[in-house]
Amino acid sequence: MSVPPGSADSDAIAPDSTAGKQPEEKIQRSLFGEILDWMLAPLLLLWPMSIAITYLVAKSIANQPFDRALEDNVLVLSQQVKEIDGQAITQLSNPARDILRADDLDNIYFQIKGLKGEVVDGDRDLPAPAEDDKPPAGSVQFRNAVLRGIDIRIAYSYIDLNRTGKRGPNKDPHLALVQVAETLEKRSLLANEIIKGVILPQFIILPIALALVWFALSRGLSPLAELQQRIRARRPDDLSPIDSRHVPEEITPLVKSLNEMLERLAQTIAIQKRFIADAAHQMKTPLAGMRMQSELALRQTDQHEIHQSLAQIATSSEAATRLVNQLLTLARAENLAPTNQPREQIDLNILARNVVQEWIQTSFAKKIDLGFEQDKNAVLIFGSPLMLREMISNLIDNALRYTPQAHSVTVRVRIDHDEALAILEVEDNGPGIPPAERERVFERFYRILGSNVQGSGLGLAIVREIASQHDARIQILDNPQPQDTAYSGCLFRISFQLNPYDEVAMEGLS
Question: 299 and 156 share a domain?
Fold first, then answer.
C-alpha cells in the first residue's frame, strides 16, 4: 500500500471515519414561519387557560344568585323557629314545606336543630358544621358538603331564640341551627350555558384571527419580496446602491449593509480592472523589446551581435519580471484589508537592518555607500512584517536608482519622543524631487520628466499603499545635509504609532 506524501502511516491504515462525508446542510429558517410560530404559540397556549379561567368565573357568577336564594330561605326559616318552655319548635306549615322543596332540577334540603343539638325538623342526614366554624348569631355562611354521595351547597345560620327576651349579662344565648342545602345541577347548568355563550363565539373568532394574522404577516413581509424582485431584476454588472426609500424602517439597516458591500465589491472590481489594464499596458514595452531583439538575433550571423541581442532580451525579461512582481505586490497591498493583515509586534530596528543587508551587494555594484543608523532602544510597532519589508525595499531601491556613484544612501530608524512616533527615514543624495511633484510621484506609473532612470513607476505607489495600511504618515523632504551642491538629495520619512506596550519607549517619553 502506498502512502501519500506528507501523510502518516496511521492515517493510511485507519483513515478518519468522517472522511468523505459531506457536511450537513443547515436547514434555512423561514422568517414568515418563525414570526407565525411566535404569534400563534402564545395564542394557542393562552386559549385553554382562558377557557379554564372563564369556567371558574362562570361558576362564581352562577353561584351568586343561587347563594342569595339559599340565604333568603335560611332567613325565612329562621323566622319560623321559636322557643317554648326551653325547647325549639317550628311553625312551618305543610304548604310552606312543599314550596320550599318545589324545584324541578335541584333537590332542596333543610334542617333545624334545637338548643341541645337535637333535630327539630327537616332532614336528619344533613351534615352539621364544624364546632370551630360557628359564625356570629344572625349571620348566614356557606359551605360545600356531600350528602349521600351527592355534592351539595349549604347555607346555615345560628339564631338566638332568646333575642326578644331579657337575659342577664352572665346568661348564654339560646342558639338554634338553621340549614338549607341544594344540589348543584342548576348551578352547573347555568355555568355551562355561560361557557357555551363565551366559548362558542371563540371557535368562530379564532379561525378569523388566524386568517387575519396570516394576511397581516404576508402584507408585512411583502417589502422583502419586492426587494428580492428588484435585486433579481438587476443586471449582473449593476453595482449601484439599492434605493432604501421604499423599504420599511426595520429593513433599512439591511439595505445599508448591502449597499456598503456593493460599494466594497465595486471598489474591488475597479482595482482588479485597473490592475489588468495597467499590467497589459506596462507589459507591452518589455515584451515588444524581447520580441524585437529575438527576431533580430535570429537574422544575425555575427556572434557578437547575437550576444548583444541576447543581453538585451535578458535585460527586458528582468524588467518584465520586476514589473510583474511590483504589480502583484501593489494588488496584494490594495486588496488586503487592515483587519485581515497578520499583525504582530515588530522591532523596526531589526527589520530595517535586515532589509538593508539584502541590498548591500546591489549598492556595491552601483558603487554607492549604503548606511544604516538605528535608535539605541528597541523601536516597537504593530504591523505586517512581509508588507513592511516590501515597503522598505522599494524605498531603498528608489534611492539607489536616483543616487549617482560615489554618493551615499542612509536608512535611519529613530523615536520622536515629542510626538510618540517611530520614524523610518531613507535619505539619498540624488537630484531630489521638486515640491510640486512630491504628491504626484506616489501615483501609479508616474515618472518625473528628464529623470532618465529605468523603472516602472510603481515603487512609491507601493510604499504609499503599505504606509496607508499601517496608518502611517509619509513625507518627502529635502536632504538636510547633501553631499554635493549639484544634487539636493531627498528624504523620505514615514511615521508610525509606537507600540503603547513598549515600556522602554514609554519611559523615555515620560
Answer: no
Residue at which a domain ends, from 294, 317, 333: 333
Half-sphere exposure in the Cβ direction for 1 (13 Å, CA): 9
Give CA–CA dist 140/179, Å, rounded. 9
Domain final residue, candidates 333, 361, 389: 333
Q: Does the pTM exceed 0.70?
A: no
* Residue 495 near residue 439, CB atoms below 8 Å: no
In a domain, 289, yes or no: yes
Instruction: With residue 403 as reference, give the H or E element that holds it.
Output: none
Strand partners, 141: 156
CB 107 within 8 A of CB 151: no
Residue in the structure block whose three cell numbers are 352562577? 62
DSSP 3-state of 271: helix
Residue 52 and residue 195: Cα distance in Å, rounded? 10
The residue range of the domain holding 267 is: 252-333
Shared domain for 159 and 46, answered yes or no, is: yes
Domain assignment present for 4: no
Answer yes or no: are the C-beta atoms of 271 and 331 closer than 8 Å: yes
Alpha-carbon span 327 to 332, nearest angstrom = 9
Residues 289 and 359 in one domain: no
Domains in the chain, number: 3
Contact 414, 376 (CB under 8 A): no
pLDDT in tens, the chain (510 residues): 344 444 434 344 444 444 445 555 555 666 667 777 777 777 778 778 877 887 788 777 778 888 888 888 888 888 888 888 777 887 776 666 665 665 555 678 888 888 888 888 888 888 888 877 778 888 888 888 988 888 888 899 888 887 644 444 546 678 888 889 988 888 888 778 877 777 778 778 878 887 888 888 777 777 777 877 888 888 887 888 887 777 777 778 888 888 888 888 888 787 677 767 766 666 666 677 778 778 877 887 778 878 877 887 777 777 677 667 766 766 666 665 555 556 789 999 999 999 999 999 989 999 999 999 999 999 999 888 888 988 998 899 889 988 989 899 999 999 998 888 999 999 999 888 888 888 888 877 666 644 555 656 677 888 888 888 888 999 999 888 888 777 888 999 999 998 765 555 555 555
The b/e string for 128-157 (b: 16+ C-beta within 10 A; e otherwise) is ebeeeeeeeeeebbeeeeebeeeebbbbbb
- For helices 252-299 and 303-335, give the axis angle rounded to 10 degrees: 180
Question: Which three cell numbers mark 382?
Answer: 504593530
